[in-house]
Design a protein that fits this description.
The complex is a heterodimer of chains A (about 290) and B (about 375).
Chain A (H helix, E strand, L loop, with lengths): L1 H31 L17 H7 L4 H29 L7 H9 L6 H12 L6 H8 L7 H4 L1 H26 L3 H9 L4 H28 L4 H5 L12 H11 L3 H26 L1 H4 L1
Helix pairs in contact in A: 1-13, 2-13, 3-8, 3-10, 3-12, 5-8, 8-10, 9-10, 10-13, 12-13
Chain B lengths: L1 E12 L2 E12 L3 E5 L6 H9 L6 E6 L2 E2 L10 E4 L11 H11 L4 H14 L15 H13 L5 E5 L7 H18 L2 E6 L2 H7 L2 E6 L2 E6 L1 H6 L4 H6 L6 E4 L2 E5 L2 E6 L2 E6 L12 E4 L4 E4 L5 E10 L4 E7 L4 E6 L10 E6 L5 E3 L11 H5 L1
Parallel strand pairs in B: 3-8, 3-9, 6-7, 7-8
Antiparallel strand pairs in B: 1-2, 1-4, 4-5, 9-10, 11-15, 12-13, 13-14, 15-21, 16-20, 17-18, 17-20, 18-19
The chains are: A mainly alpha (about 290), B alpha+beta (about 375).
Chain lengths: ~290, ~375
């Protein structure tokens, strides 16, 4: 009796969550198996796996998958490596540390669209961007970042956006490091580098795992930065999976293929997560 | 020949003067204990010797070399911390060998040293474990092992036993004493527990408010303290202090009038001239119960039975409380009126400035 009341009371939230997940998923699966093009309404017949075939054989597909993975891994490496180094640097007290910390964290508060616009118009613009100005001051030819290195530009923007998150996590983690351990290492003859290598890095293993996992979730779906700056181009040079799906659904009006792409992205996310969790997840169980 | 010489050592924090001119000579192989109340600077002094705190003035000399400005990693000292400070990501074996690996000692030598240390501290079955899989006592032994394996010039211990439970503490105390006997290395040990200080030390340094109050063997401090602080700090329960109302010297005898009674004291045990006022200090074990005609009388307020002995808290006629050590099977009951004799040969006299003006009785000092 008591148990059934508990279940009854829990039911609304459980059902809510279930519907929240199941409905979009099943609709996506459904759309992916029918011909569903917004330009040809009313001709929604069942086509089996044809949408998947279309998506996978799309000329941009291989590039998009590769770009997604390159973007993910580069941003992860940059944010984790720079994050650990910067956090270690600002862990020691120095004059103005709190201001420096706030400045380091602040890019995280800027929304991705604005972030991309800042980089596009103020930093990387070949005519009046700051990078162009620096190049010209040094007597060099300004670089058209978005045109010449589109994927790298996106990587820089995304890393700039996510570095603060890594720093935030690492700084907090460093504060929980035991000072007596560091002192013991000093007494054992350890230099600053030894302490960093043998005490700080192992201490940060778990936070690094957390940062990698959380960033992976968001970096697989980078969209705004690409949309605002390169528009996936030139060609497919900076198109990732998320952008390719958008391209299918809203530029080519093919909801069916876009749904198939969405399901493929879910698959890819699971594959990446599987390997990442195997790689860094062992740190979480320690 | 002094091994470790500390002279005029000062330590200032922003608004706090932690060490106020410490002078100390330590001979090689000595077991020295710093003891004092919280905030007396004993840990600061140890950490300054270790190089974890920089001194604000004065010098530290080790084995003929000035190490005042030397980095702690180059001082060749080993320290055992209160929290043990084991490296959590390394196994016990790696913890033990960390310093040797940093010093690039050859592998076979490292293995040899780790093996001998782990054997002597019974760590063999634990070598592959991580610190968090160890009990408090085991961690403590690993921390000690990590210090021993380097064969440093001096061992520093910062309240190493205070995180252990009482039984383990007694056992580890004994092991530390054995270890010192076996290694013969100079050890400096900080504690707030005077039992540890008394049992372990060759010499005890009593610190108070950043200054050394007294340095001496445990028995010297117990029997011939310099001043009231040391007299009260050493000894459990505390020394009883009774104000003397008036006193007179006659025929080599000092008569002390207190609590409507009088106690005689040999005048040749007084250093210098007589002070303006005298306080009599007497330890609980030097008070004895008598049938009648005692030096003082009082009313028993409470008796604490410890099994091997008992302590009676007695209220004197002026409402002052004193503690008397009685036999284990004492028949004292609460509210009994008792007569007490003071063993004046063990009494200590203080002047109005809380300095000790008496010296221990000759016969007693040889005992």
């Amino acid at each position: 009796m008591k148990r059934s009341i508990t279940r009854l009371l829990m039911a609304p939230s459980v059902i809510m969550l279930l519907v929240w997940m199941i409905v979009p998923l099943s609709m996506t699966i459904y759309f992916s198996t029918i011909r569903y093009n917004l330009l040809y309404p009313g001709q929604n017949r069942f086509v089996g796996l044809m949408n998947y075939e279309f998506f996978v054989t799309d000329p941009g597909f291989i590039t998009a998958v590769a770009n997604t993975l390159i973007l993910l891994l580069s941003a992860l490496v940059i944010t984790v490596v720079l994050g650990v180094m910067l956090s270690a640097l600002i862990d020691k007290p120095f004059f103005g540390r709190s201001i420096v910390r706030v400045l380091l964290i602040s890019p995280f508060f800027i929304m991705p669209t604005v972030n991309a616009l800042i980089w596009k118009n103020m930093m990387m613009n070949p005519v009046y961007g700051i990078f162009a100005w620096i190049s010209e001051s040094l007597g060099l030819q300004p670089i058209d970042w978005l045109g010449t290195y589109p994927l790298m530009s996106v990587i820089i923007m995304v890393s700039w956006q996510w570095l603060p998150f890594a720093i935030l996590v690492f700084v907090t983690a460093l504060q929980s490091q035991d000072t007596e351990q560091k002192e013991a290492a000093q007494m054992d003859g350890a230099t600053g580098w030894h302490i960093f290598r043998y005490l700080t890095i192992p201490h940060l293993a778990r936070p690094i795992a957390v940062v990698v996992m959380i960033e992976t979730i968001f970096l697989l779906a980078v969209f705004a930065e690409i949309f605002v700056t390169t528009g996936g181009g030139p060609g497919y040079a900076s198109t990732n999976l998320a952008y390719l799906i958008y391209n299918q659904a809203l530029l080519q009006y093919d909801v069916g293929v876009a749904s198939a792409g969405g399901l493929f992205a879910v698959l890819l996310a699971n594959i990446v997560a599987f390997f990442l969790i195997r790689a860094v997840g062992k740190n979480l169980t320690v | 020949m002094s091994y470790l010489v500390i002279s005029e050592l000062q330590k200032h924090y922003d608004s706090y003067h932690a060490l106020r001119g410490i002078n100390l000579n330590v001979t090689e192989g000595e077991f020295l204990v710093f003891v004092g109340p919280s905030g007396c600077g004993k840990s600061t002094l140890l950490r300054t010797i270790a190089g974890l705190e920089l001194s604000s003035g004065g010098s530290i000399e080790l084995d003929g070399k000035d190490i005042t400005e030397v980095a702690s990693s180059k001082r060749d000292l080993a320290m055992v911390f209160q929290s043990y400070a084991l490296y959590p990501h390394m196994t016990v074996a790696d913890n033990l060998s960390f310093a040797l690996r940093l010093a690039k000692v050859p592998d076979n030598e490292i293995q040899e040293k780790v093996r001998s240390v782990s054997a002597s501290l019974q760590l063999d079955p634990l070598l592959d474990r991580k610190p968090k899989e160890l009990s408090g006592g085991q961690r403590q032994r690993v921390a000690i092992g990590r210090a021993i394996v380097r064969q440093p010039k001096v061992f520093l211990f910062d309240e190493p036993l205070s995180n252990l439970d009482a039984a383990l503490r007694v056992q580890m105390r004994l092991e530390l004493a054995r270890l010192h006997k076996k290694l013969g290395t100079t050890m400096i040990y900080v504690t707030h527990d005077q039992i540890e200080a008394m049992t372990l030390a060759d010499r005890v340094v009593i610190l108070n408010a950043g200054q050394i109050e007294q340095v001496g063997t445990p028995l010297e401090l117990y029997r011939q303290p310099n001043n009231r602080f040391v007299a009260e700090f050493i000894g459990t329960p505390k020394m009883n202090l009774i104000d003397v109302d008036s006193f007179a010297e006659k025929d080599e005898t000092l008569t002390l009038n207190l609590l409507n009674s009088s106690v005689t004291f040999p005048a040749n045990r007084i250093k210098g001239s007589l002070p303006k006022a005298i306080t009599l200090g007497i330890r609980p074990e030097h008070l004895s119960l008598v049938e009648d005609n005692g030096d003082i009388t009082g009313r028993v307020e409470l008796v604490e039975h410890l099994g091997s002995e008992s302590y009676a808290h007695i209220q004197l006629s002026n409402d002052q409380m004193i503690i008397l050590k009685a036999s284990a099977r004492s028949v004292l009951k609460d509210d009994d009126v008792v007569h007490i004799n003071i063993d004046s040969s063990e009494a200590i006299l203080f002047n109005q400035d809380d300095q000790v003006i008496s010296i221990i009785a000759e016969g007693a000092s040889n005992a």
